[in-house]
């Protein structure tokens, strides 16, 4: 059986959407149509009996618009401005998700994390317990970084690493990263027409890490291929398969789960010796 055929039997799925997937680049406003389809897809997975966790960015984009800073971008605004916009935008983003999920009769829960929540033993224990209880209660946790007290994902992450940490904390068996890239290539396809698409990665080795590029080119999100490979390392060692795919059409979620040949799949290779805290320390996250 091919790896993709096993996805329909997964028990716990984490889906990550980057800012570029839910923001309209013309105005910085949210793309409600896409968010609606995203939510519908996730509710449908839930109705298949799977546990679902959503990791969503977009708080800064919503906040920038609300605070009248639309003329600025993530890179022209100061870091404190971005943080303030995230604080303003997070509640509005959550309100939108809450409304959409409740239209499909599903309950959400807001979870804001930082790397410190994972590095600190007591906070990690608490976060694991809360996720476990939320999933037991049937909620769909909606996760973002707590941008008020931490800026890692704002500066270089696009929530890629965060979503892999969430996969680890929740014991997920599949992580789907949706952004503005449709998968892994041997080189940057926008610059090199000979770049080849890689459909499956069995093991993330040093050669592959070198291949990862530092930019997605969208100007909206920040996560490049290297943060996605890092996420793949965490997910894989924690026992989750990972798929990188384009978030252009949110209907890919069910197509991926149904085993269609979409995006790049990273095989899980559970590593009993993998220690998330030491790994985060080592990569300087
Ligand atoms: N947490 C931030 C947001 O929601 C930024 C994460 C990201 O880089 O997309 O906007």
What is the topological layout?
Blueprint: E1 12-17, H1 19-22, H2 32-47, E2 51-56, H3 59-66, H4 79-103, E3 108-113, H5 115-119, H6 121-136, E4 140-145, H7 152-156, H8 160-170, E5 174-179, E6 184-185, E7 197-198, E8 200-201, H9 206-211, H10 225-237, E9 241-246, H11 252-257, E10 264-266, H12 276-283
Bound molecules: glutamic acid (GLU).
Residues 18-19, 57-60, 86, 144-145, 147, 153-154, 157-159, 221-222 line the site of glutamic acid (GLU).
Overall residue-averaged pLDDT value: 90
Order of helices and strands: EHHEHHEHHEHHEEEEHHEHEH
The secondary-structure class comes to alpha/beta
The portion of residues forming beta strands comes to 15-25%
Report the major sheet: 8 strands, mixed
Spatial strand arrangement across the major sheet = 3-4-2-1-5-9-10-8
Q: Helix count, per DSSP?
A: 12
Helical residue percent?
40-55%
Molecules bound to protein? glutamic acid
Q: Tell me what the CATH architecture is.
A: 3-Layer(aba) Sandwich
Oligomerization status of the protein chains: single chain
**Strand runs, count:** 10
What is the number of independent domains? Answer: 1
CATH class: Alpha Beta
> Mind telling me the CATH superfamily name?
Acetylglutamate kinase-like
Concise structural overview:
With 285 residues, the chain is α/β, with parallel strands linked by helices. It is built from 12 helices and 10 strands. The model is unreliable at 214-223 (pLDDT under 50).
């Amino acid at each position: 059986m091919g790896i993709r055929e096993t996805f329909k039997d997964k028990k716990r799925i984490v889906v990550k959407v980057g800012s570029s997937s839910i923001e309209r680049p013309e105005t910085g406003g949210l793309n409600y149509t896409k968010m609606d389809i995203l939510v519908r897809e996730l509710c449908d997975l839930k109705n298949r009996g799977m546990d679902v966790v959503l990791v969503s960015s977009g708080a800064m984009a919503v906040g920038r618009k609300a605070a009248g800073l639309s003329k600025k971008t993530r890179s022209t605004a100061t870091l404190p401005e971005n943080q303030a916009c995230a604080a303003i935008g997070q509640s509005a983003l959550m309100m939108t998700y809450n409304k959409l999920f409740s239209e499909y009769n599903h309950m959400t829960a807001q979870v804001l994390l930082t790397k410190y929540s994972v590095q600190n033993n007591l906070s990690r224990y608490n976060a694991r317990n809360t996720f476990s209880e939320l999933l037991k209660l049937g909620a769909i946790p909606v996760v973002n970084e707590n941008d008020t007290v931490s800026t890692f994902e704002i500066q270089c992450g696009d929530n890629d690493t965060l979503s892999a940490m969430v996969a680890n904390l929740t014991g997920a068996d599949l992580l789907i990263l949706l952004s503005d890239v449709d998968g892994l290539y041997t080189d940057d396809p926008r610059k090199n027409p000979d770049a080849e698409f890689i459909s499956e990665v069995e093991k993330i080795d040093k050669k592959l890490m070198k291949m990862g590029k530092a930019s997605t080119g969208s100007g909206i999100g920040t996560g490049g291929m290297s943060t996605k490979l890092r996420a793949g390392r965490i997910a894989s060692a924690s026992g989750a398969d990972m798929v990188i795919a384009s978030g252009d059409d949110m209907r890919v979620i069910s197509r991926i789960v149904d085993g269609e040949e979409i995006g790049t799949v990273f095989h899980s290779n559970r590593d009993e010796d993998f220690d998330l805290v030491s790994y985060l320390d080592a990569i300087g996250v």
